[in-house]
Design goal:
seven-stranded mixed sheet; binds magnesium ion; binds adenosine-5'-triphosphate; Rossmann fold; 2 domains; 8 helices
Length: 285
């Protein structure tokens, strides 16, 4: 990756609640290419939402850096950060309640946002956006009069209203059935192909993998592994463990179990490969 549009280095975030601390991100490195569509998976509590909030400038991480294009979020002024969130980022959340105003129709939700962005001819633009997400005939429906999948497609139209350069989605299909989820991912893939929009999508749904260029797995606040798809053949290249910028690597539970519960290893380099062997108890000092 020569010139990633988005890059985080050693991102760390600690939440403080009363006297206790929760380490949500612990030295996460990530680089995303312009126009790339990245899926993010990981167990509950692994730090996925915290990562998206840090990328969107909604959360000031405890440590490390986030750069989007030429903006360093950590040292940017409040004004530049406001501008970044308003002009560059589109966000889709999990539920309609987070994305849409319940008392406004699909079209009015969009027009309110478009007017905020001082968009010329917001009616025409709202119609275009609803056409784009396949909801031409649902303009005058209130959120409650739309299916879950349709509500999320309105949310996607809302997220596109500012012509963002980065689309972040946190479990956009978390409340949808398999078919509506597939429709939503398909639509996001289509937008990537048409607009070259950089997208990062968090999901529990394994099906997401079929629609993105790469899936990264977050474990304990770090990127532990990634899976790429060959854009030519569409075939999976297999899961690769990620070595971070300070040389750390996370083993899976199965790999650790294979070491027989021993937590000291030797790493021997031989002909371009590294062999990790448990250190027998008698040998450790
Ligand atoms: N506002 C907060 N205050 C305190 N702790 C928090 C806060 N938000 C998240 N956490 C904690 O930080 C850790 C990471 O949370 P995060 O929401 O990023 O996980 P996640 O991967 O998005 O999980 P899920 O899949 O359940 O959405 C968790 O242990 C969580 O309890
Ligand atoms: Mg989350």
């Amino acid at each position: 990756m020569t010139n990633p549009i988005l890059e985080c280095q050693q991102l760390t975030h600690v939440y403080r609640v009363g006297d206790s601390e929760v380490i949500a991100l612990q030295g996460l490195d990530l680089a995303v290419d312009r126009g790339e569509m990245v899926g993010v998976i990981g167990q509950s509590g692994s730090g996925k939402s915290t990562l998206l909030r840090a990328l969107s400038g909604l959360l000031q991480p405890t440590g490390g850096s986030v750069r989007f294009d030429d903006l360093q979020l950590g040292s940017a002024s409040t004004h530049s950060l406001d501008q970044y969130r308003r002009d560059d980022v589109g966000f889709v959340w999990q539920t309609s309640a987070e994305n849409l105003l319940p008392n406004l129709t699909a079209e009015m939700n969009l027009r309110l946002l478009l007017d905020f962005h001082s968009t010329e001819n917001s009616i025409k633009r709202a119609h275009e956006l609803l056409d784009r997400v396949g909801l031409t005939d649902r303009r005058t429906h209130l959120p409650a009069e739309l299916s879950g999948g349709e509500q999320q497609r309105v949310a996607l139209a809302m997220a596109l209203a500012n012509n963002p350069r980065l689309l972040l989605a946190d479990e956009p299909t978390g409340a949808l059935d398999a078919e509506s989820s597939a429709d939503m991912f398909e639509l996001m893939g289509q937008i990537q192909r048409e607009d070259g929009l950089t997208q990062i999508i968090v999901s529990h749904d394994g099906e997401l993998a079929r629609y993105v260029d790469r899936v990264i797995r977050i474990r304990d606040g770090r990127v532990s592994s990634e899976n790429r798809w060959d854009s030519g053949t569409g075939e999976e290249r297999g899961e690769a463990l990620v070595i971070d910028s300070i040389g750390r690597l996370q083993l899976t539970r199965e790999q650790r179990d294979a070491l027989g519960g021993i937590d000291r290893v030797t790493a021997e380099v031989d002909e371009g490969a590294i062999t990790i062997r448990p250190v027998e108890e008698g040998r450790s000092s």
